[in-house]
Amino acid sequence: MIRECECLLPLIPAARPVGLFLSSQRERCKEKKYDYDNLPRTSVIIAFYNEAWSTLLRTVYSVLETSPDILLEEVILVDDYSDREHLKERLANELSGLPKVRLIRANKREGLVRARLLGASAARGDVLTFLDCHCECHEGWLEPLLQRIHEEESAVVCPVIDVIDWNTFEYLGNSGEPQIGGFDWRLVFTWHTVPERERIRMRSPVDVIRSPTMAGGLFAVSKKYFEYLGSYDTGMEVWGGENLEFSFRIWQCGGTLETHPCSHVGHVFPKQAPYSRSKALANSVRAAEVWMDEFKELYYHRNPRARLEPFGDVTERKQLRAKLQCKDFKWFLETVYPELHVPEDRPGFFGMLQNKGLKDYCFDYNPPDENQIMGHQVILYLCHGMGQNQFFEYTSQKEIRYNTHQPEGCIAVEAGMDILTMHLCKETAPENQKFILQEDGSLFHEQSQKCVQAARKESSDSFVPLLRDCTSSDHQKWFFKERMF
Ligand SMILES: [Mn+2]
């Protein structure tokens, strides 16, 4: 069971309570003064494909209404070969009456990455500001981004992304404090609270927040620096994965990726993405192949399909990495994203955890909600060899980790229970999370002194792992297998 996100930007998890940090932040943002005469001017680039009329126009009007005239060079709309009628003459007519707005049309479907580059190549501003085509810029959104790039040319700066309700289009804002971006070892983008080390580094609540990765389409970058960094990887098709590739590249090649807490842009999280995700896998593989060094194996272990995916030629991107003398991925993990746990993946101790007696059945964990991963029961299901929700790692701390997701889960047994449930992993493994995988394949839970057995779930046709008194039965024997064949 593999679930795919349907949004261009991953959904922001439920807002956290407003703290002191935040209320003082809001006031301080209002007090901020800007040296308008000396700030760089920006081209705002909005690529779209078959976008609805109202959301597209709302984006354009909100940019025009909230951007100070002196800072806005132009708004460039890039039509990625849409075929919907309202985006043809009607759109051209509507825009022709607007100041500073230019419409560029692709002659064939290019995909998000190349459509954006088309806009960038036509841009006349010093700074490129990329937006999605269903956004609403908030008063004061632009100044902090340009101010920061004015101070530091190698900073790539994202606004805080506020939520616009899909059904009512009501601006819900973002009542929690800004979140930063990360990823898990499937190379799926994740949201995180600001870590303590970063709070300490920030000189004030209105200082930029460093973020290991960006969510997607909303950021500002110096045009010169964007070109220096190698703009986008034009070998990337359609969309998906390009945000992580660009994030790795920014950090590893000497830039910084930041969120400015004073810049707010609303984003409609669509129910259905207009772009197909079919190319996203190849894009992620390109990111892994160029930037992740030996750590790409951790990704491939969790997503074996990726190994088979044709990803095109990355020679030029590797040359770019060498030319810019970019740092390695180990540096990135240690310096930029130390919160991410790096799996051990010892040979023979990761992959599918398969039973010997109950043929073709594997440990399987399928939480109903990607944002609520913990607390559910581990089951057994026909082995599918696709990694993902059947991927587990047995660690030297004797944990059975479910570490395709962030934060990582560890299999635990609650007191007095015989079922296996998922808990958060801890720095040091708690006793109820310790299992001994013995040479004969038995999986011994130390605390309860019992063995894990493949068993039929009561009054059903499904199977689950349960704790039972240890026997020599093959139903108590387990082994790891990396791939199906
Ligand atoms: Mn979007």
UniProtKB/TrEMBL annotation:
Pathway the protein contributes to: Protein modification; protein glycosylation
UniProt topology in membrane: Single-pass type II membrane protein
Residue ranges occupied by any Ricin B lectin domain in the UniProt entry: 349-481
Catalytic activity: L-threonyl-[protein] + UDP-N-acetyl-alpha-D-galactosamine = a 3-O-[N-acetyl-alpha-D-galactosaminyl]-L-threonyl-[protein] + UDP + H(+); L-seryl-[protein] + UDP-N-acetyl-alpha-D-galactosamine = a 3-O-[N-acetyl-alpha-D-galactosaminyl]-L-seryl-[protein] + UDP + H(+)
Transferase among keywords: yes
First and last residue of the signal peptide: none
Protein known as: Polypeptide N-acetylgalactosaminyltransferase
Subcellular location: Golgi apparatus membrane
Keyword Ribosomal protein: no
Keywords: Disulfide bond, Glycosyltransferase, Golgi apparatus, Lectin, Manganese, Membrane, Metal-binding, Signal-anchor, Transferase, Transmembrane, Transmembrane helix
One GO cellular component term noted in the UniProt record for this chain: Golgi membrane
PROSITE patterns membership: RICIN_B_LECTIN
EC code(s) of this entry: 2.4.1.-
GO molecular function (one): carbohydrate binding
Needed co-factor(s): Mn(2+)
GO biological-process terms attached to the record: protein O-linked glycosylation via N-acetyl-galactosamine
First-tier enzyme category under EC: transferase
Family: Belongs to the glycosyltransferase 2 family. GalNAc-T subfamily.
